[in-house]
Specification:
single chain, alpha/beta, Rossmann fold, four-stranded antiparallel beta sheet, 10 strands, 26% strand, globular
């Protein structure tokens, strides 16, 4: 296993209170790692540590100890270019937020911000990212319509495509199917299975059932602490820890 991320004794505090505590585990490259657990387990906090989005918190004091290595480089080390880091580690949030532009403009916005001006290149990236997000066939004749006309499920896949257009190495997904119908959820999950050949994926799932469906690797958090991590099929069928078994079988949570 080649580790894309290595999390080492990670603790993150808001106003002195730890949201995650002493986490140590690895995220393998080109697999889907699912971080699951009940509310207030620290899942979203951990996800935002992986591309330093927690740096942007202004309303309370934060503190991080431990290390997060991306390809063996400490992302909190001196000299780390945070803008470059966030290009390498893209994020898709639970609530889709299309820009108030056309579908096409949504997809080329980030590319143009990076200085890409060649029309052929922009067109190619739009098609490629929409194909990867399983949205191309639905919108290929509507690219110059407002993105807000898309359904909720289509908007979520558009936001995934917008991230993919920037060609990151890692995709972080924070509960990306929470507001979607079963058909749209299945399309997103199917896309992720294909995308892991090219990208490393870290997902906070909508439910235990979704976690079990998509996880190559599973990480179970409870109260900010790591209870158990392992291969997905093992965690959801033969967990080693009683607390894991109790959670995945619905005894609490």
């Amino acid at each position: 296993m080649v580790a894309k991320f290595s999390i080492q004794e990670l603790t993150f505090r808001y106003s002195g209170q730890p949201a995650v505590k002493d986490l140590t585990f690895e995220v393998p490259a080109n697999e889907i790692t699912v971080i699951f657990g009940p509310s207030h387990a620290g899942k979203s906090t951990l996800l935002r540590c992986l591309n330093r989005l927690n740096d942007l918190i202004e309303y309370e004091e934060t503190e991080l100890t431990g290390r997060i290595l991306l390809d063996q480089h400490d992302i909190y080390g001196p000299g780390m270019d945070v803008t470059a880091l966030r290009r390498r580690v893209g994020m898709v949030f639970a609530l889709p937020v299309p820009l108030p532009m056309t579908i096409y403009q949504n997809l080329v916005f980030g590319l143009r911000m990076q200085g890409q001006r060649r029309q052929e290149r922009l067109d190619a990236m739009v098609e490629q990212s929409l194909v990867q997000a399983a949205l191309w066939e639905e919108v290929k004749d509507r690219l110059h319509e407002p993105a807000m006309r898309l359904s909720g499920g289509q908007q979520q896949r558009l936001c995934l495509a917008r991230t993919l257009a920037l060609e990151p190495e890692v995709i972080l997904l924070d509960n990306p199917t929470s507001g979607l119908d079963p058909l749209s959820t299945a399309k997103v999950e199917n896309s992720l299975q294909e995308l892991k050949a090219t990208y490393t994926i870290v997902l906070v799932p909508h439910s235990v059932q979704q976690a079990a469906r998509v996880a190559d690797v599973a990480v179970f958090l409870l109260g900010g602490e790591l209870v158990e991590t392992g291969r997905g099929d093992q965690i959801f069928t033969r967990p080693r820890e009683q607390r894991t078994e109790d959670y995945v079988t619905g005894r609490f949570g």
